[in-house]
Amino acid sequence: MMKKKSNIYNLTLIIIAFLISISLYNKLPDLMPMHWNISGEVNRYGSKLFAAFLPPVFMIVIWLGMLYSPKIDPKKANYSKFNESYTIISNALVTFFFVIHIVIIATSLSYNIPINKVIPFMVGILFIIIGNYLPKSKSNFFYGIKTPWTLTSEEVWKKTHRLGGKLFVFSGLIISVSSLLFKGNIQFIILLISVFIVGIIPIIASYFYSKNNIK
After folding, report:
1. Per-residue pLDDT for the chain (215 aa), expressed as one digit of tens each?
2. Taking every annotated instance into account, which residue ranges of this chain make up the domain DUF1648 (predicted)?
3. Are the CB atoms for 10 and 94 separated by under 8 Å?
4. What is the CA radius of gyration of the chain?
5. SS3 content of the chain, % helix, strand, coil (to 5)
6. From CA 119, how far away is CA 36, in angstroms rounded?
7. Separation between Cα atoms, residue 36 and residue 115, nearest integer Å
8. Of 8, 35, 102, 144, which is most buried with the most CB atoms under 10 A?
């Protein structure tokens, strides 16, 4: 039942995203903002056709990718053990890109959106959501912190994802708060450090968890 509701939710967001682009297409400029620097200034533009429909396409890829990955995973039986958390993460990712889409459209229509605050804040919220549900995952080949050590030991997988969950929540809080308090280089450095923490520390930790398990 939850998966059905999730599919309806994600499909509805995708349809709305496409309808927004289609309905506003003639009002959009020929060149639309695609990337911003650390000060929130546009530093790269894309063609209207590309920029208006790229985020909805990303939403489709994410939704279908997470929907069908469990079907081809050699460890697909494990997904039933954390289906709820997996579904919530899928919804969160699709929602994140939906917000990105709205921001791009609104900015293109000359609305004053504080990009340097909105996007980092949303990244922080996404990290917090991931951090809350990541520890509930079970060993698989497509989702989670996959290292040679987590994939060969259920205990190492469990310990690594428990640590990873805490780091994601901590980093998400730091990113969200800093997006409201700082700007420019300070905000960018905090973001980089936070991403480094969640991207590297769990991998290193999984090695030591494995080493201790062998002993």
Report:
1. 677 888 899 999 999 999 999 999 999 998 888 877 777 777 788 888 888 999 999 999 999 999 999 999 999 999 999 999 999 999 999 999 999 999 999 999 988 888 888 888 999 999 999 999 999 999 999 999 999 999 999 999 999 999 999 999 999 999 999 988 887 788 888 989 999 999 999 999 999 999 876 54
2. 13-60
3. yes
4. 19
5. 75, 5, 20
6. 10
7. 8
8. 144
